[in-house]
Amino acid sequence: MAQKPTISRTFIMGLWEENPVFRLLLGMCPTLAVTAAVKPALTMGLCVIFVMICSNIVVSLMRNLLKPHLRILMFTLTIATFVTIADLFLKAFVPVMSETLGPYVPLIIVNCIIICRAEACASKNGLVISVVDAIGMGVGFTATICVLAAIREILSTGNIFDIPVMFKSFVPWAAMAMPVGAFITLGLMLGLVNIITKEKEKNKNSHSCSVEGSE
Amino acid sequence: MTVADIIQLWNSAWPAGVTMLTLGSAFAIVLLIASEKLKVEIDPKIEQIHEALPQIDCGACGFAGCGSYAKAVAADPELIGKCAPGGAETSDKIAEILSLQASAGGHPQKPIIHCRAHTADRTYYARYGGIETCTAANALANVQACKFGCLGYGDCVDACKFDALHNIDGLATVDYEKCTGCTACAKACPRNLIEMVPFSHENMMTVACSSKENGKTTRQMCKVGCIACSLCTKKSELFTMADNIAKMDYEKFQPSDQTEEAYTKCPTCVIVYRGKSAPAPRQKEKKPAPAKA
Amino acid sequence: MLENIAVSSSPHISKPLSTRTVMLDVIIALVPAMIAAVIFFRLYAVTILLTCIVTAVITELICNHIRKKPNSLGDLSAILTAILLALSLPPAIPLWAVIIGTAFAIAIGKMVFGGLGANVFNPAMVGRAFLTASFGMLMTTWTVPATINPEMPTITESVKSTDIRTQATPLAKSKEALKGKINASVANNLIKDAFTGQIGGCLGETSTIALLIGAAYLLIRKTITIHIPLAVLISAFIFAGVAYLINPDAYISPLTHLTTGGMLLCAFFIATDPVTAPLTTKGMWIFGIGVGAIVMLIRIIGEYPEGIMYAILLMNAVTPLIDRLCRVIPVGGIPNAKS
Amino acid sequence: MLKVKHFIEQSWLLIVASFIFGLLVAVTYASWKPRIDQNEKDKLNNLMRFMITDANSFEIAVRDAEINTGKGKILKTNIYKALYTDGRTLGYAFVAVGSGFADKIKLVIATDIHCEKVFGFKVLASNETPGFGSKITEDFYTNQFKGAPATELIVSKTGDPEIIDDKIITISGATVSSEAVVKIFNTFIAQIKQKLEEQGLI
Amino acid sequence: MTANAKGQFTFPGGVHPPDSKTLTEDSPIQIAPVPKQVAIMLSQHIGAPCSPTVQKGDEVQAGQVVGNADAFVCAPVHSPVNGKVKEIALRSHVVLGRVQAVIIDVDLENNPPKKINPEKYTNGFDFDAISPLQIRDTVRNAGLVGMGGAGFPTRVKLEPNEQSPKKIMIVNACECEPYITCDYRMMLENPEQIIAGVKLAKKASESPRVIIAIEDNKPKAIQMMARKLRELHGTENIEIAAVKTKYPQGGERQLITSVLNQYVPTGGIPPMIGILVLNTATTAAIAEAVIADWPLTHRVVTISGEGVSNPGNYYCSIGTSIAEVLEFAGGTNSEAVRIISGGPMMGIAIADLDTPITKTSGAITVLTKQQIGKAKFANQQTPCIRCGRCLEICPEQLNPTKIAHAVKHELLDTAQTYFMTACIECGCCSYVCPANIELTGYIKTGKILLARQKKKMPQ
Amino acid sequence: MDTFNTLLLGFISIVLINNLVFTKFLGICPYLGVSGRIDMAFGMGMAVTFVVTLSGTLTWLIDYFLLQDSPLEVTRYVCFILVIAGTVQLVEMYVRKFFPPLYESFGIFLPLITTNCAILGLCLFINLWEIDNFLEAVVLSFGAGIGFTMAICIMAGIRENLKLADVPDCLKGAPITLITAGLLTLAFMGFAGMIK
Ligand SMILES: Cc1cc2nc3c(=O)[nH]c(=O)nc-3n(C[C@H](O)[C@H](O)[C@H](O)COP(=O)(O)O)c2cc1C
Ligand SMILES: Cc1cc2nc3c(=O)[nH]c(=O)nc-3n(C[C@H](O)[C@H](O)[C@H](O)COP(=O)(O)O)c2cc1C
Ligand SMILES: Cc1cc2nc3c(=O)[nH]c(=O)nc-3n(C[C@H](O)[C@H](O)[C@H](O)COP(=O)(O)O)c2cc1C
Ligand SMILES: Cc1cc2nc3c(=O)[nH]c(=O)nc-3n(C[C@H](O)[C@H](O)[C@H](O)CO)c2cc1C
Ligand code: SF4
Ligand code: SF4
Ligand code: SF4
Ligand code: SF4
Ligand code: FES
After folding, report:
1. Per residue in C136-176, pLDDT tens?
2. What DSSP designation does C222 have?
3. Would the pLDDT of B292 be above 70?
4. Which of C65, C297, C314, C318 to mutate to test the interface with F (most CBs of F within 10 A)?
5. E333-371: per-residue pLDDT in tens?
6. Domain for residue A77, yes or no?
7. pLDDT higher at E333 or F68
8. For residue A108, what is the DSSP state?
9. Average per-residue pLDDT in chain D?
10. Which of A57, A58, A83, A84 would best serve as a mutation to test chain D binding (most D beta carbons within 10 A)?
11. What is the location of CATH 3.40.50.11540 in chain E?
12. What was the pLDDT predicted at C217?
């Protein structure tokens, strides 16, 4: 288990095996709050990727200088700084999204995923691994919330990216745009992921010899 | 960018820098003092575990932060593996820290089930139609003639968190590859069939029966039970007889000709090997067929 | 030797009662309400009831199949849920919405929690709440009953056109009265119509008399106890009564409150759903009072004309806490901590 | 002195980092500030231009006009004046706030130069239920205001929304929100008119 | 007819199962033939088990002690027959599993069946001549244990306690279990013996007052007992109370509530509030021990149920195997699917018919599939619909469904927060549950698990 | 009287109608993580209430007197989070040292709160709602905590019951909790629009 992290492995981990939303159940608030439509979700995902890369870089550089009692403070300080920058960027260049996301952009600061990666990966690994990890995790997060957002957007408006995709007489399910929709869709998605993982594990178990042999 | 621009930038930027500097230093001072003045001693083991955890206090484990989880795990190792962010690596580390203790003899304790009868080997008086747990079945009068043998409803199987126990034809069977020796199964069996034994060898010899009935009754109740014939005690001094049942001295166990002879001579084949690569139990040679005809 | 002898734990005899008979009793008690629905809403009632039942059955079959569980239709609870959902839907709702609502009620309201007995929220109300949240418009269109509207439109017409003859329900009138647009007595005058059911509203809620017949049957058969209905009605009556005493022009009379909207259906058939109501008598009283209070709160202060559904769901949510609070005390009292 | 040294040893990283990060943030802000301010201005301007299509620029006509929203609450809002390329005033616009179904609704309302006819309204911010109150942004509803008289408007549940008069037909299923918009409108329009009169602008 | 007891004659909760007593209530007690072999269990009571006092091959006489122990909470066991000890071996016990028993081959030649001799108890025994201590010693030496089911040594129960002096003794003649009529028949046929026993028990326990509680569906027994009481004793200090017919009226905690309107504390026992409860059969045995000077070697057993050919009440030797006892009643018929030691509500299903009857076996009930019910027989449980019926009828006012589900999910702590150990295992909850859940079974399992957990705790 | 009314309505509103968990999706991580048992949930709720009241008030003060309409506004997020993280850490250490029993009952939840967005979220929302009255800020912060406590306790009650239910394996744990939370938000829609 405790094998040395390689670049490709680290990246893949974030996408599925340690997908922050499905596996670690972290950063649930933005996951739920910004997924009424794909656009804000995508924006949020990109912000998270940016912040995560930056903070992982900084933490990775500082990793040997940290003092235990100031660690959390240091992390939050770093993250808050980059979040502020991201927020300013949105305000300056994509004001519409800044408006839609509202306070959920600054809330990235307390998004557990970022602190988690800072602590679990960046404070233990070198620069490259940390950055790859950030990208992997970030992309995993973004992809996940985009899927969630797509489901909700299609059902609640019949559109995706404002392009109608459903049949004409489709009556939108307003509930999907409400908190109910967010919670239930995510709940069912998690259930599905659990089923898929179990299937995979089963397959893995039955082919375990061949996998080992090939390695 | 001209120098003037830079100066202007600096002019508008320094107040923010200073504000944060002040705030940062203030917290640095306060937290430094606090961390030194308000230090609380904790159990080194808990501290170690805490170190091993990601320390992001996310609550995914269901506890109030890493500290609480560390404390809980230290008290109850069965909680290992609840830290999602830490993943398998962390779980392994915690397991290492808690290093599930080995037995006095330095050998790992592994469970042995003192019964070897499958459903077909046993005598039943009736059909059991109640709650399907061993504890419930054991509380009812003897459906299964042998009151000592495995009931096969798998209380131990449920107790094992490592998928190391399976019910095979009415007999709980340990998968020694997976077993961690956590003793959960031994605690769960209502018939106290499961004994934690120091495995000085990969495969241990044992008398797989618990019946305290006399030989005649045992024979009526079970095709493979120990009939207290004392043959093994005569072959090897590792075996002793008490309460109508032979017992092996595991501490002294060393495979030898004597033990091998006891193994091969046991008329009901109740002496068996248990362990990772144990051979399948001996089967009674069928009497030559003509006897019946 | 005794192969046909079976052994299990005591007791060895049991009352001739099963989940199925309990559910069947409730279905029988709902027959008058269903008949009333058919009389007043004709084909609407028939198609909605059938659609609900068929969808519920199919959904439950699919869920059981996915979980590889034995077929659980035999306990009739899915059918009962379907009937209650159907009875709490407006007549003009299109059938595709009925299907979505019923499927949601059974799948999300019940099966994901583990099926009968495990659900936290009343499945029928979950289905209705989802429909209300999704298709608010469709859920607030009240068709005029056939008895006073001889040219009742057919189903196909209604789905297409929005100009079915609709009618403000007494509760809509009540809301208008609250805003000072009309006098509350206008709504109070509808009480006679509400008794028979000649009035706009959900399929099963309009006829007070049909519901009371069913309620009497349930009480006589001891399928339900009187605690919850009584608590709901008393607490609603008190709240409504106080408001009425303060200003009878703005607040409709307590009796109108009790006989209109889903109040009776709720008190006798929905709040009494054993699965989602507290276990203890004391708990049932608290539950009932809570339901009554929230209904009146929403009807009088809130923005919606009716609050039955939300009241039920909210009290369902706190039912575990109520159960915890009203833990039964053994006859011998609570033993000392020491022993 | 030893203590100071100890402190510096322990905390220099945090102190340095906070200073640097502070600078970083401030520099970013300083360099993007013009854009951000412009964006904010643009948003309002765009909304206003949407209603007063010919307008070239906007400027504040009355700063911090005090509006009584009932129950003794005073709200301050700016009244903007829409200017044509030649400097002619085309109309007035202002931000109005009031409570909707769930939360506050913020509108931008535009009127003609005499404050007699409404050019329309746009929703600046609202938190109404999706699928219900959120429909107040839809044309069906907003179009009724285009050209409506700038007097007390009346809400009605029935009628033809195509006819432009002082009767506003509610959105069915969202009566409360529809009424709320009209109420905000009614609260503000009279007082705005009065303010403009006080300033001698009309 | 009824006494001036201050109770309501009922208790909260309870059920009304069909009582099915007509099968045996009119059949007089018959003397069972002598069995070929008896197995005298060395554990027939709560407390320390006996150790055998005889060895393989010993000749034993009827009434001879074959097992004894020194412990205070213990009662000796006696041979009911003349014969020879065959061996000391394991035999199935209804609840304890395999326990040591003295197996005696009966000497069939000189073994007349033991009779009940009512006349002994009518002609003037001098109750004043015997001291309480003497009675108690006799009771112990006769091996008396409670015959109502629990099997607690009677001597210990009778012992006066300084801390809580006995105020009232209740004679439990309710017999609330369906099918069982052994106590009823005793009251009709040998009221003198019971009354003599009651008087002795009253004296031995130094209780100032006695109430004989009989369910009001047994008017004949009430009349008989009242008449005999008047004839033999007069009514002062000994009263008869007709309590409501409801299961489990005979549970001692319920009976105390019924008769006296008092509640035994949860987890406590009746002596804590100064009350002693004795079963009628126990009192009869006291009379036999003291007046006829004969130990407890025989008892009346109701053999009933739709699955036996000749239901009736039989006076059997303790130690007879159930198979043989059933033979007395003509054996089981083809529809028999469950053989129960005890009644259908609390009795325990038997698989091994070699199980001998003990001092506490008051009945053997044989049920057919029809009585059990198809769903119950097939163990078809549906999920709990939280209908609350089990809470409503639980005579101890517990929350059976919560306890049972907690046990099912192995949450013993949770179960304990609902007072699992206060359950008297009466079976009412399982009886009423529409979902057919074996609530009582789960609760029993939970108690076992808890006991085991406690035992393992210290290590 | 009028201010009292505003405060009361504000309080009820943030507890029932604009509940942080149900309408603003804040504090979901602990809501999913620590709602397994009622006592734990209550402890968490209390801890959140304490911290949110404290930091809501503190950040309001900082915001109102220092940051608003000044060039320092840009450091708002950093200041807020520093205040929250620092305060929480301090309070935790303090309580742990001097009130061990209190620490056992709710202090253990404190570290979990730094990364709980309910706290920062509330501070930001107070800023967004343009609250300009000190008392209102305090009451809203406190109400937010109470609302969170209520939500998490209800959830814990439900989950304790679900422990005894036969939830499909793939939905056990977080998924069923999320679905339940969804249905809860549906129920809480009943309060919508009740207070303006
Ligand atoms: C069981 C039941 C529950 C109901 N719950 C609600 C509810 O929560 N909200 C609602 O608006 N209508 C609910 N209704 C519908 C109302 O009873 C009633 O038909 C309707 O609200 C009155 O129409 P109006 O909205 O035009 O006044 C329910 C109906 C039934 C039968
Ligand atoms: C879930 C839900 C959300 C609602 N949201 C709004 C809303 O945002 N705005 C609104 O005006 N009405 C909303 N309503 C409807 C109101 O409760 C009210 O019934 C409606 O305004 C009455 O209008 P009607 O008479 O046209 O049906 C909502 C209703 C429901 C059930
Ligand atoms: C549910 C239940 C029902 C009982 N029913 C009777 C009964 O009908 N008759 C009886 O004598 N004892 C019955 N008992 C046993 C009594 O509680 C009590 O143990 C007995 O009367 C004590 O007398 P003993 O020591 O002489 O047996 C019952 C116990 C329980 C738990
Ligand atoms: C008295 C009674 C009332 C019931 N009410 C409802 C109800 O309102 N909604 C519902 O879905 N099921 C109801 N049921 C059926 C059943 O309890 C329901 O399907 C379960 O909630 C599903 O787990 C009721 C059952 C009974 C016995
Ligand atoms: S070993 Fe024990 S617990 Fe396991 S199945 Fe056998 S009897 Fe049951
Ligand atoms: S419960 Fe523990 S000791 Fe028993 S088989 Fe499983 S891992 Fe081994
Ligand atoms: S819980 Fe125990 S006491 Fe209560 S009814 Fe069930 S078996 Fe009887
Ligand atoms: S009687 Fe059965 S179904 Fe009813 S609450 Fe009790 S256990 Fe559940
Ligand atoms: S992301 Fe909100 S609490 Fe974790």
Report:
1. 878 887 877 777 766 666 655 544 444 556 677 788 888 87
2. T
3. no
4. C314
5. 888 899 999 999 999 999 888 999 999 988 999 999 888
6. yes
7. E333
8. G
9. 82
10. A84
11. 115-290
12. 96
Chain D residues at the F interface, defined by Cβ less than 8 Å, are 21-22, 25-26, 29, 72, 99, 101-103, 129, 176
Mean pLDDT confidence for B91-120: 74
Residue B84: predicted pLDDT: 66
- Interchain contact A92–B (C-beta under 8 A): no
Residues B84 and B119 in one domain: no
Mean pLDDT (whole number) for E384-411: 93
Structure tokens at C289: 């009072």
In a shared domain, residues B89 and B137: no
CB-ligand 2 contact for D105 (6 Å cutoff) = no
State the nearest Cα–Cα gap between F132 and chain A, in angstroms: 19
Number of compact structural domains in chain A: 1
Q: Are residues B137 and B248 in the same domain?
A: yes
How far apart are the C-alpha atoms of A123 and A108, rounded to whole Å? 19
Question: Is residue A4 pLDDT above 80, yes or no?
Answer: no
C79-125 pLDDT tens trace: 999 999 999 999 888 899 999 999 999 999 999 999 898 999 999 99
| Chain F residue with minimum CA distance to A82 | F78
Strand partners, E350: E339
Collapsed DSSP state (helix, strand, coil) of residue C166: strand
Torsion of the alpha carbons at C204, C210, C211 and C216, rounded to the nearest 10: -150
CATH number, domain containing residue B241: 3.30.70.20
- In whole angstroms, what is the distance from residue A180 CA to residue D53 CA? 40
| B129/C6 Cβ within 8 A | yes
Strands E298-304 and E275-279: unpaired
- Measured by CA distance, the residue closest to atom 1 of ligand 6 is B160
Residue of chain D nearest C304, judged by CA positions: D176
Alpha carbon of E441 to ligand 3 centroid (Å): 19
Angle at F189 between CA D141 and CA C102, to 5 degrees: 95
Question: pTM value?
Answer: 0.88
The whole-number average pLDDT for the span E91-114 is 89
In this structure, the strands spanning D118-125 and D104-112 are: antiparallel
Q: What is the pLDDT of residue B143?
A: 85
Q: Are strands E30-31 and E312-317 parallel, antiparallel or unpaired?
A: parallel
Fold held by E115-290: Rossmann fold (3.40.50)
Best residue of B19, B25, B53 to probe chain F, by most F CBs closer than 10 Å? B19
For E321, the 3-state DSSP assignment is strand
What ipTM is given for this predicted complex? Answer: 0.86
d(CA C74, CA C20): 7
Beta bridge partners of D89: D83
Which protein residue has the closest C-alpha to ligand 1 atom 21?
A: C306
Chain A partners (3+ C-beta pairs within 8 A): B, C, D, F
The residue whose C-alpha atom lies closest to atom 1 belonging to ligand 9 is A27
Structural domain for A126, as ranges: 7-214
- Judge whether residue B140 has pLDDT over 70: yes
Taking CB atoms and an 8 Å limit, are F120 and A190 in contact across chains?
Answer: no
**pLDDT for position C166:** 66
| Whole-angstrom distance, CA of residue E49 vs CA of residue E39 | 15
Residue A142 in this model has a pLDDT that exceeds 60 = yes
Distance linking the first and last C-alpha atoms of chain B: 112
Q: What is the pLDDT of residue C264?
A: 93
* Residue B18 falls inside a structural domain: no
- Do the beta carbons of residue F53 and residue F140 sit within 8 Å? no
Q: What is the pLDDT of residue C153?
A: 63
Query: pLDDT at residue B67 above 90?
Result: no
Chain E contact present for B148, CB below 8 A = yes
Kindly give, in sequence order, each residue whose CB lies less than 8 Å from that of residue E146, ignoring residues fewer than 6 positions away: E152, E153, E154, E157, E278, E279, E282, E360
* Residue B244 resides in a domain: yes
φ/ψ of residue E303, rounded to 5: -110, 110
